[in-house]
Amino acid sequence: MLSLKEQIEKFQKEINEFNVATAADIENYRIRFLGAKGIVKQLLAEMKNVAPELKKDAGQLLNSFKQYAENKIASVKEIQVQEKSVPKIDFSLPATPLPIGTRHPLKIMENNIVNIFEKIGFSVATGPEIEDDWHNFTSLNMPANHTARDMQDTFYVAQNPDWVLRTHTSSVQARILETQSLPVRVICPGRVYRNETISARAHCFFHQCEGLYVDKNVSFADLKQTLYYFVTEMFGADTKVRFRPSYFPFTEPSAEMDISCTVCGGKGCNLCKHSGWVEILGCGMVHPNMLRNFNIDPEVYSGFAFGMGVERMTQIKYQINDLRLYSQNDVRFLRQFQSI
Ligand code: PHE
Question: 209 vs 90, 169, 309, CA distance in Å?
Answer without folding.
Answer: 51, 7, 6
